[in-house]
Specification:
- The complex is a heterodimer of chains A (about 300) and B (about 260).
- Chain A is an all-alpha fold and about 300 residues long.
- Chain A contains 15 helices and 2 strands.
- Chain A starts with a helix and ends in an 8-residue tail after the last helix.
- Helices cover about 75% and strands about 0% of the residues of chain B.
- Chain B has helices at about 5-35, 50-55, 60-90, 95-110, 110-125, 130-155, 160-165, 170-200, 205-210, 220-230, 235-255.
- Chain B is mainly alpha-helical and about 260 residues long.
- The chains are: A mainly alpha (about 300), B mainly alpha (about 260).
Chain lengths: ~300, ~260
């Protein structure tokens, strides 16, 4: 979730000229030693479980749940079954729509923050990101309160003179999309702000001085240079949306199965762990492909001479 | 250069709309939690009645206690391991791609995947599940976040201070204790607060690693089952308390970390 700072969090190395022998002595002894407990924790409780679940994808389901150690490719082939491929497609459509809307809302918002007076920017950014760190369930529940038949939105419509049946806004694809956009918008604003705020203002001035219109300058200079922020934000929303479980369950009313719900069902209700594992693997593959694409976008922009100030 | 009027107008308009979109839905919740009538449709006057109901609900109190135990334990372990990890990584002469990917992974793995992986892992090893397995699982992502926050601080760390301390005759241990640690401390505390918030709010991984039974139910699990049951004024009150706790932790974290938390 902090992929932005991560790219540049590669701070001080022992090879850094600032690190004198004296400093080397101060930092905890041995490069490996301090990192060891954390690395061990991640190895045992993240990497080993993930490897195990990937292995499960190739094993057979037990008669009463559980896993039998017999190799098979059935689970992976089943992911391609039209029924499940259809769920992947639905998830992709919903996640894609949420991503598009989030970027379309976040871009002007980030731009507006960048154009605000400098001393206001940290506060505006903080306020934009604050909801992101509050409870996901609660933020989703807020939309149930707003969208249900007796909810605020229907009440508002009645006040405006609407006299028909209350609209059933909840438990629809639209509600799921709105919930996803609402939950992930803060991060997209942050990602786009991060690239926009680092753009060299001289580039824009040069473009204007050379006779380009404001629109042309935006389309040919600002927009391409902010592509890494857009890509980072978009990949984030897409990945978290497609694997989402809470929003479709609460705002979709169980009517819209997404990959996340399907995995949940395989593990907790259908008791078909190997198939659930195969679905999880497919999800990780999609995620890695997208992260690879995002890295390409970032490289292309910062590879040019007009880098967005990437370290 | 003065901002053109049309631009100022558009900028304020956009900000107003976006902040309304972000804050009105949760604001409505907070407002309704103080509504005596308990109905979303009619304002029956200000009341703390629903908060009172919460205080008398044994299930919610036990879930809140569990959450506190899990979040404090996970935060303590993650802060120690994450800080050491950050120091260890930053000290390396060469950047290791594998290590970078490893400390980055917990932040981006879809939580449902990590949840089912840990469930499979614990059940394969016949580990009895309960609050302790939730703690173990939460440390995985908590430590990655602590590590990221502390590393960001190390990046701008003024190493001449350390040098000065050594030149003036302080021992390595004294220097670490009196110079390095105090300088790093704000970011360590900021990371810990972030880890605490993440752990308090985490639902899916806790749900999968808690095991059956009410005894290891956490607050988000309680909230989830309440929401599935329907809209009640108690949820609004509970939601308000949870959001207030997160927001307070984050504001403190942000102050300590001088804005670095947000990558700005």
């Amino acid at each position: 979730m902090m992929s932005l700072s991560n790219h540049e969090a590669c701070g001080l190395r022992a090879s850094d000229p600032r690190v004198t022998p004296a400093i080397r002595k101060i930092l905890p002894s041995g490069p490996g030693l301090a990192a060891a407990p954390g690395v061990a924790w991640l190895a045992v409780f993240m990497i080993a479980p993930c490897l195990l679940v990937f292995a499960y994808a190739f094993l057979t389901r037990g008669l009463y749940g559980g896993v039998v150690d017999e190799l098979t490719l059935d689970n992976l082939l089943r992911v391609l079954d039209p029924l499940y491929a259809g769920i992947f497609l639905t998830s992709t459509r919903i996640a894609g729509l949420a991503t598009l809307l989030a970027v379309l809302v976040a871009y002007p918002a980030a731009y507006a923050i960048v154009l605000s007076p400098r001393h206001w920017q940290p506060l505006l950014l903080f306020l934009a990101v604050l909801p992101f760190w509050s409870n996901y369930l609660i933020r989703t529940y807020a939309w149930i309160v707003l969208l249900n038949r007796e909810g605020m939105v229907n009440q508002g419509l009645t006040l405006l003179g609407y006299e028909g049946e209350p609209l059933s806004l909840l438990y629809s694809e639209g509600a799921v999309v709105v919930g996803l956009v609402y939950n992930y918008l803060p991060f997209v604003i942050l990602a786009i702000y991060a690239t926009l705020s680092r753009l060299d203002p001289q580039l824009k001035e040069a473009s204007r001085d050379l006779g380009a219109s404001a629109v042309a300058t935006f389309v040919r200079v600002t927009l391409p240079l902010s592509a890494p922020g857009v890509a980072a934000g978009a990949v984030f929303v897409f990945v978290l949306s497609i694997g989402n479980f809470i929003t479709p369950a609460l705002l979709g009313g169980g009517r819209f199965q997404m990959v996340g719900n399907l995995i949940y069902d395989q593990f907790l209700t259908a008791n078909d762990w190997p198939f659930g594992a195969a679905l999880g693997m497919a999800l990780i593959l999609v995620m890695m492909a997208l992260l690879f694409l995002q890295a390409r976008v970032t490289d292309r922009v910062s590879g040019g001479r007009v880098g967005a100030g990437n370290a | 250069m003065r901002e053109p009027r049309a631009q100022a107008f558009a900028r304020r308009g956009i900000l107003l709309l976006v902040f309304a979109f972000l804050y009105v839905p949760v604001g409505v919740l907070v407002l309704l939690s103080f509504n005596r009538s308990g109905l979303p449709t009619a304002w029956g006057g200000f009341s703390l009645k629903w908060y009172g109901e919460l205080a008398g609900n044994a299930e919610i109190l036990s879930a809140a206690w569990n959450t506190l135990v899990v979040a404090l334990s996970a935060t303590a372990i993650a802060t120690l391991l994450g800080t050491l990890l950050a120091l260890g990584i930053e000290r390396r002469a060469r950047r290791s791609r594998g290590l970078e990917a490893m400390v980055f992974a917990p932040m981006i793995i879809p939580d449902i995947v990590l949840a089912v992986a840990l469930l499979s892992f614990f059940s394969r090893l016949d580990v009895t599940t309960g609050l302790h397995t939730i703690v173990i699982s939460h440390v995985v992502f908590d430590l990655a976040f602590v590590c990221a926050v502390v590393r960001a601080r190390l990046k701008s760390f003024d190493f001449t201070m350390v040098e000065a301390s050594r030149d003036l005759g302080a021992s390595a241990v004294t220097t670490f204790r009196r110079v390095t640690l105090p300088l790093l401390l704000p970011s360590v505390v900021a990371g810990a607060l972030l880890a605490f918030t993440l752990s308090v709010d985490e639902f899916i991984i806790a749900f999968f690693t808690a095991g059956a039974g009410r005894s290891s139910m956490t607050l988000p699990m309680q909230i989830y089952s309440m929401i599935r049951f329907g809209i009640t004024p108690e949820i609004n009150a509970l939601a308000t308390i949870v959001m207030a706790v997160s927001a307070t932790a984050l504001v403190i974290s942000q102050r300590l970390n001088r804005g670095r938390l947000l990558g700005s």
